[in-house]
Amino acid sequence: MSQTIRHPEILDIARRDGKVTVDGLADHFGVTLQTIRRDLTDLAEAGRLERVHGGAVLPSGTVNIGYEERRRLNAEAKTAIARACAARIPEDCAVFLNIGTSTEAVATELMHHRNLLVVTNNMNVANILSRNPDCEVIVTGGSLRQSDGGLTGDITTAAIRQFKFDIGVIGCSAIDPDGDMLDFDVQEVGVSRAILARSRRTMLVADHSKLSRTAPARIASLSEVDLFITDRAPDVALRHRCDDWQTQVIVA
C-alpha cells in the first residue's frame, strides 16, 4: 500500500481516536515501524499532524475542528458518556446544557426524562429536546454562531445569571495536563464560567481525545467540577489531582 493511500486513512484514525501510535499503525497497515515513522513525519511537516512520543496527535493551535467532523469524532464514546451523564440527572430538576457535540448527545439521552427544565445556549440541544413533551426548554439569547448553532456573548451570560440550576453540564475543547479546561472561543469561555457559577452541581462531559489536545482560552480548573465523565481514564497524575480536588472521574 502506497503512502498516498495510507495518509488519508492515518488522518481518519487520528480524527476518530484523537491520536495515532507507530505500533498501532504498523499493525493496521502491515508495514514496518520505519515506514510509519516516515508517514508521520511527512504528515507533520505538512501540518496535518503533530508528532508526540510514540505517535502523533491532531495539531494544536487556535482553530477548532469543524463541527460536523466533531460530531463524527469518537461518536460511540460520546454516546456512552452521554448515557452515564443522563443516568446521573434526576427527573424534576433544572439543567443547563451548553454548546458542544457531547452535550447534544446528553440531550438525546434525556428524551425520556420527565419534568425537566432545560436551559441551553445550544440550538441543536433545543431542537432535540423540543420532541420531549415532559421537558420545558428555555433558549438563552445571544449572538448565533451559524457553524454550530451556539449562542454566545454578553446577552447569553446575562440570561444565565437569572437562574440557579440544579445541574450544569458543560463540554470543552481540551484539557491541559494540569487539569485546566480549555476552549477556542473566548465568548464561549465566559458562558461556561457563568454556568459553573450558577449550578449547584456541575458535570464535564469530554471524551479522551480532549486530553491530547490544546486550546488557547482557559475556562476553569477541573477542581471546579463535581463530575468529570469520560470514556478513558486520564493519566495517573491527573487522576491524583482530581482525587485531591474531590472531582469524581466517571469512565463510561
Record keyword descriptors for this entry.
DeoR-like_C; alpha/beta; Glycerol-3-phosphate regulon repressor; repressor; DNA-binding transcription factor activity; Arc Repressor Mutant, subunit A; 15 strands; Rossmann fold; 252 residues; transcription; 10 helices
What would you say about this model in short?
The chain is of the alpha/beta class. Helix content is 40%, strand content 24%. It folds into two domains: 3-57, Winged helix-like DNA-binding domain superfamily/Winged helix DNA-binding domain (Arc Repressor Mutant, subunit A, Orthogonal Bundle), CATH 1.10.10.10; 67-251, Rossmann fold, CATH 3.40.50.
Overall description:
This protein is of the alpha/beta class. The protein has 2 domains: 3-57, Arc Repressor Mutant, subunit A (Orthogonal Bundle); 67-251, Rossmann fold (3-Layer(aba) Sandwich), CATH 3.40.50.1360. The chain is built from 10 helices and 15 strands. α5 packs across α6 (101-109). It is elongated. The two termini are 36 Å apart.
